[in-house]
Amino acid sequence: MEKITLADIKWIKSLHEKKNRSAENCFLIEGRKLLDEAIMTPNIRITMVVLCSAYDQELHLEEDTQVLFASEKEMQRITCLKNHANVLAVVEIPEVKNLKMSRAICLDKLQDPGNMGTIMRIADWFGINNIVASNDTVDVFNPKTIQASMGSIFRVQVHYVDLTEFLKKSTLPIYAATMDGEPYHHFNFENNGLLLIGNEGNGISPEISEIITHSVGIPRIGKAESLNAAVACGILCAHWSIK
Amino acid sequence: MEKITLADIKWIKSLHEKKNRSAENCFLIEGRKLLDEAIMTPNIRITMVVLCSAYDQELHLEEDTQVLFASEKEMQRITCLKNHANVLAVVEIPEVKNLKMSRAICLDKLQDPGNMGTIMRIADWFGINNIVASNDTVDVFNPKTIQASMGSIFRVQVHYVDLTEFLKKSTLPIYAATMDGEPYHHFNFENNGLLLIGNEGNGISPEISEIITHSVGIPRIGKAESLNAAVACGILCAHWSIK
After folding, report:
1. Residue A243 — very low, low, confident or very high, per pLDDT cuts 50/70/90?
2. Nearest CA in chain A to B120
3. CB burial class (10 A; 0-12, 13-18, 19+) of residue A28?
4. Range with the lowest mean pLDDT among B91-95, B123-127, B194-198?
5. Looking at the predicted structure, is the pLDDT value of residue A98 above 80?
6. Rounded to whole angstroms, how far apart are CA atoms B204 and B193?
7. Which residues in chain A are closer than 8 Å to B118, comparing Cβ atoms?
8. Please, what is the average pLDDT of chain B?
């Protein structure tokens, strides 16, 4: 096992930023649970694993994975977390397969990385394998997204597209979560369709509002101004899945 | 308007920690939206407001609220956020009124402050005015909880109690969210009852599992190991509210 070098540290830290992840075509995962999920997932290539002194559990890695050893201090320099997780890995960004799908969650300018990760986990729970995101939606390989996805990042594909164009071309019903939509429990969602979730502060974009086929709401009884976007997505996916 | 002093800065920073919030009986809020909600809520006492140079909107404060002026640099020292919000306020912890309630969300060792805030927002949306939390649940006045609650902190009461004792004494049905519970949509939740959400990693405590009256699950179709605790709470509250 080699010791981590200053150049390695610098390179790994550069992957905290989206532009470098895109240029290098890889992203970071941290913690044993995520690493195990990556190892178990076919077609996921782990190029580098960094372990620190405190780490002594056995790993089942491919032979071409570079394994580096880091001190506590070095680990704390490369982590995206407040406290490092004893193991960090560099994973190649998987190829996104074709866009033909019968059901998906669509994200219109979603900005919060935690919401993005939580929505991936919801999709994964309810067996929805595709998320279609507008090009200006938060990056799926943001470290906070990856942590919040709890491993669903390896099972749910995210397609970044011109969302307006994508929706215009689609023949599927588009169920958009809106503040004043028809109560969701009055709807019989079709099995095949698209569930559209808007931006946390502004909801659905005006140009997309024009092309949705159904506006779906979650009736409010109390006084909160809105629900969290991921929670709204969860409520609608749960309803969709029992139909 | 006075300038902020070093002593003020030190004191405000001390309120980032729970033990000091308890000792001083106050907590911090940041941003105009939260401050407006605090101003509009009867019986919420704002003791101090700190503004920075960039801030020029009018505020409608009580006469006894101390207003301090801080530089960008001073603001960045006292904020709990990555980037300060131009306005920060110190608010007295409101008195929690009696524990008699017909419906509530109960939290068993919930640890994530974001989840706590999101659950307050869910409660507020669905008109559930009380949350009963085990004594070892995350602090409701944690800055991350307050941000995630989006103002619901001023409308939903959180009671910290010995949760096992509380549930033992209650005569209400206890609907516990569990991984293997009966599918939620087969249930007719009674209007009066308690919805119990467990710890993010470990679920419901063993001693509490023995006293729940109904174990409620959200059927999984895909492969995620679990749903986020706040999302599960949202799905069950939505179902509860349409019954």
Report:
1. low
2. A224
3. buried
4. B91-95
5. no
6. 17
7. 228, 231
8. 94
- The rounded Cα A38 to chain-centroid distance in angstroms is 14
Nearest CB among B129, B234, B239 relative to A231 is that of B234
What is the mean predicted confidence (pLDDT) over B102-118?
97
Instruction: Enumerate the residues of chain B whose CB falls inside 8 A of the CB of residue A218.
Output: 125, 238
> Residue type at A242?
I
* Structure confidence at residue B61 (pLDDT): 87
- Flag if B227 and A234 touch (Cβ within 8 Å): yes
Mean pLDDT of A162-174: 96
Is the C-alpha dihedral spanning B162, B168, B171, B174 positive or negative?
positive
pTM: 0.94
d(CA B90, CA B50): 9
Which of B182, B218, B223, B231 is best to mutate for the A interface (most A CBs within 10 A)? B231
The third-level CATH classification (topology) of the domain covering B2-92 is 60s Ribosomal Protein L30; Chain: A; (3.30.1330)
- CATH, range A103-241: 3.40.1280.10
Residue B123 C-alpha, separation from nearest chain A C-alpha, in angstroms: 8
Question: Checking phi first, is residue B137 left (phi over 0); if not, alpha (psi -120 to 50) or beta?
Answer: beta
- What does the pLDDT read at residue A97? 80
Average pLDDT over residues B66-76: 94
ipTM: 0.93
B231: nearest CB among A122, A224, A239: A122
Domain layout of chain A by residue ranges: 2-92, 103-241
> Residue A215: what are its φ and ψ, rounded to 5°?
-105, 120
User: What is the rounded radius of gyration, in angstroms, for the C-alpha atoms of chain A?
Assistant: 20
pLDDT band with cut points at 50, 70 and 90 for residue B97:
confident
| Token pair 């949509």: residue | B185
| Distance from chain centroid for Cα A69 | 29
Which strand (E) or helix (H) includes residue A194? strand A193-197
